[in-house]
């Protein structure tokens, strides 16, 4: 970490991606509070951890002190 110098303090966006799906404009316009959006992943499946849009790890969703967290389960190989 010391060899990063000033880069160690550059902020990066870290995302935990549950899933994604395509919907038509008509489907999106029909959404309202209480609507369900069905996803392809099953409950308990890992989420993708992305840094700057790149998939870098997998993780499990947890609740710690009433806050959602992600525990890393695997790091992906660097390209």
Topology:
Blueprint: E1 14-17, H1 25-29, E2 47-51, E3 54-64, E4 67-75
The secondary-structure element order is: EHEEE
Please give the radius of gyration in angstroms.
17 Å
Q: What would you call the shape? A: elongated
Structural class: mainly beta
Percentage of residues in DSSP E strands: 35-45%
> What share of the residues lie within helices?
under 10%
Give the tags:
mainly beta; elongated
Describe this structure in words.
- This protein has one helix spanning 25-29, and strands at 14-17, 47-51, 54-64, 67-75.
- The protein is mostly beta strands and 79 residues long.
- The chain has a 4-stranded antiparallel beta sheet, with no helix packed on it.
- A hairpin with a 2-residue loop joins strand 3 (54-64) and strand 4 (67-75).
Explain briefly what this protein structure is:
The protein is 6% helix and 37% strand. With 79 residues, the protein is mainly β.
